[in-house]
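Reminder: ligand-aware prediction takes two inputs, not one.
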Amino acid sequence: MSNIFADNILLGKVAFVTGGGTGITGGVARAFAEHGAKIAITSRKEENLIPMKQFIEENGGECFAVAADVRDFDAVQNAIAKTVEHYGKIDIVINGAAGNFLCAADQLSSNGFGTVVDIDTKGTFNVCRAAFEELQSSKGQILNISATLHYLATPMQIHVSAAKAGVDAITRNLSVEWGKHGIRVNGIAPGPIEDTEGMKRLLPDALKEKITRKIPLGRFGKIADIENAALFLASDAASYINGVTLVVDGGQWLQGTSLA
Ligand code: COA
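Here is what comes back for the chain with coenzyme A:
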């Protein structure tokens, strides 16, 4: 997809992106760099960050890579501090780090449930909390990536549904509590997006066609669809949008998750 937005809409902004090495948030990091932002990407393993860092730099952007497990508040604080040391500020925080696997509720252990809630929900809070002072001084913003799984009920995904419902609650709460500091807090809820690690692991090929038939727009989403939603929400065009989770799913969740 060619650029829809002006190249420089994020010129001079610094974006701190968790899970920014790969997948949907990797795409968002790359797109933000293309539109003028300086990028910091973080994930548990540094080796997962290197290809994206190289890609952004080879294409004329700036990218700082710092490893941190979002479940570990001290590690998150350290990653934020190193980013500020490197760039001098943070304007945009994107919470994309997530854990996922398919598991029926009656097979899932308490630790399995808690692990995903820790990564998605507590991890999102940790990053928002650790970045608060920086965002307060930059009058910055937060974008939380959640999902539509919890709008109805998605079998085999009780842990992720609970975790993402928590992420949406964080988006709403912080938009109210931190709006007075000039910090906007929004979210994006992607539907089925093709060419992502999650989709490859979670969706058997046999189901892809059935699901496509249930998507009103008749196709899976592309990572570029999420990039464009994120660019819009991060840009000045959305300067009065606060506390919204924008669903980007071709209308899928309204059709329900049943494949019958
Ligand atoms: N089915 C059922 N339970 C699972 C599971 C699966 N596929 N994968 C992990 N768990 C459970 C483990 O059994 C363990 O619980 P237990 O101690 O009661 O046995 C608990 O979750 C923690 O697992 P562990 O592997 O120690 O956690 P981790 O912190 O190393 O990794 C994930 C957890 C979720 C991140 C891991 O599944 C993973 O690496 N996934 C791939 C990355 C990913 O999900 N990306 C997001 C794409 S949308």
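Strands lie at 14-18, 38-42, 63-65, 92-95, 141-145, 184-190, 245-248. The longest strand covers residues 184-190. We will return to this case in the review session.
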